[in-house]
TrEMBL record:
A Pfam family of this chain: NB-ARC
Domain NB-ARC: 2-138
Protein name: NB-ARC domain-containing protein
One annotated GO molecular function: ADP binding
Superkingdom as given in the UniProt entry: Eukaryota
Source taxonomy: Eukaryota, Viridiplantae, Streptophyta, Embryophyta, Tracheophyta
InterPro entries, A to Z: NB-ARC, P-loop_NTPase
Amino acid sequence: MRKEFDLKMWVCVSNNVDAKDVIADMLELLKKERPRLEKLEALQGPLKNVVMSKRFLLVLDDVWKDEEERDKSKWENVLAPLASGGFGSKILVTTRTQTQTDSVALLFSKVIKKKEIVKLEGLEEDECLQLLNSHAFASVENPPDDHKKLRAIAGEIVKAFRISIGSKSHWWCFEF
């Protein structure tokens, strides 16, 4: 993934979308400093410059849909500076519920005006456990038996996590 994208951003959105906050969050991730700018246009310019001709991955986590026209306008403001990004840039959008998933995907497809939208399925429990274990025990060579208890705890974490988000996560990928 490091080689695929020049820039990577992960922004938690939640239900109160504020274009200025989302852009400020992106800039903070990219520049390692929170911008002190107040106006939307003043934030959009630096974001456009940072992503210009660079291939980026943007994860917009926990997006909710509110009122269609108001949301569309907000997302147009957020996404407009990203149009200067490099070919093959991707935006990954997560939602909490299946009912939100389809309406958010439709909203984003209107804003981005792209026909290629890919719905990504969530990982199965064993895949989640394998992923967690590969990170949790990455530096351990030939883990000794005392890690059995930790692996059991990892299994419980995965089960609890999958129950809290449902059996499938709701993800959409948009090519920008």
